[in-house]
Amino acid sequence: MLIGDRAEWKGRAMEHIVILTGAGVSAESGLGTFRDVDGLWTKYDLADVATPEGYAKNPDLVLDFYNARRRNCVEAAPNPAHEALARLAAAREVTLITQNIDDLHERGGSPSVIHMHGEIMRALCASCGHRWAWQGDMSRADTCPSCAADGTVRPDVVWFGEVPYAMRSIGDAIARASLFVAIGTSGAVYPAAGFVAEAAARGIETVEINLEPSDVAGQFDRRILGKASETVPRFVEEVLGG
Ligand code: OAD
Fold first, then answer.
1. What pLDDT does 14 receive?
2. Where are the alpha helices (DSSP H) in the chain?
3. Contact by Cβ (8 Å): 100, 76
4. Judging by beta carbons within 10 Å of its beta carbon (0-12, 13-18, 19+), is residue 156 exposed, middle or buried?
5. What pLDDT band is residue 239 in, cutting at 50, 70 and 90?
């Protein structure tokens, strides 16, 4: 389904495209989304596994949760949506922002990805703030290579109550964008859900590509509904063809 065809667009040159992705872009790679019927937040309590308080209360539960996410990520492969976005970045100026902690955009060929909610394949020392690449399971026995503290190693992911990464760069990118596209995100979590309003306030063209209308669907100029593996390659061909 498509609302608003290309002829109705405001006709701006697509010079700088800002793309925001969410769990829906990786769903067909076998990684679970959060808020769909069988999503992760129907099986786990977000407060237990995705907050600093949850980690303080039961670190082993939290580390196990992310160890499972990391194993799933390693087993998953990029799908045609990730690959199409890499083709777009090769041909246009693209700022790719993802809420996803997986590395499927990078493995799909995207040269530069802003992980505003962090990365599962990286670690963070809760004591000194050092961040480094991480493979395999994580436990409380692990030591920070920078400050040598024990029991302070955690996944480098942003939890509820923490500030997402790169907010200044994201704001700058939206300020000079000519097109904003959100893909596979429910629009339930801020600040990411607020990017469309920021773009719209600046008169930037906005497009939502999702399986169903998101919580903020009404704020977009155009909507494309369907599976990301089909809709995103089609959309990219349309942009490149134009
Ligand atoms: P959600 O699970 O909230 O939303 C995923 C969206 O993708 C839904 O709107 C689905 O309809 C859509 N979707 C599912 N399968 C799809 C497919 N094959 N093609 C296209 N769309 C599809 O995930 P996010 O919006 O990414 O944060 O969630 C945002 C944040 O909430 C996450 O980064 C995470 C979570 O709690 C933290 O943990 C901090």
1. 66
2. 40-43, 46-49, 52-57, 59-75, 80-91, 104-107, 167-175, 195-201, 228-241
3. no
4. buried
5. very high
Q: Which of 82, 105, 117, 130 is catalytic?
A: 117
Residues 143, 41 contacting (CB under 8 angstroms)? no
2-15 residue pLDDT tens: 444 444 444 445 68
Backbone angles phi, psi at 156, to 5 degrees: -85, 65
Q: Whose CA is nearest to atom 39 of ligand 1?
A: 159
| Ligand 1 nearest-atom number relative to CA 22 | 26
77 phi and psi angles, rounded to 5 deg? -125, 150
16 among known catalytic residues: no
Model confidence pLDDT, tens digit, residues 166-188? 999 999 999 999 999 999 999 99
| 242 vs 237: CA distance, rounded Å | 8
What is the chain's mean pLDDT, rounded? Answer: 94
**Taking CB atoms and a 6 Å cutoff, what residues make up the pocket around ligand 1?**
22-24, 27-28, 33-36, 39, 50, 99, 117, 158, 160, 184-186, 188-189, 210-212, 214, 227-228
Return d(Cα 144, Cα 127) in angstroms, integer.
Answer: 9
Q: Which atom of ligand 1 is nearest to the CA of 117?
A: 39
CA of 234 to the centre of ligand 1 (A): 20
The pLDDT value recorded for residue 38 is 87
Cα gap 99→62, rounded to integer Å: 19
Q: Is the pTM of this model over 0.85?
A: yes
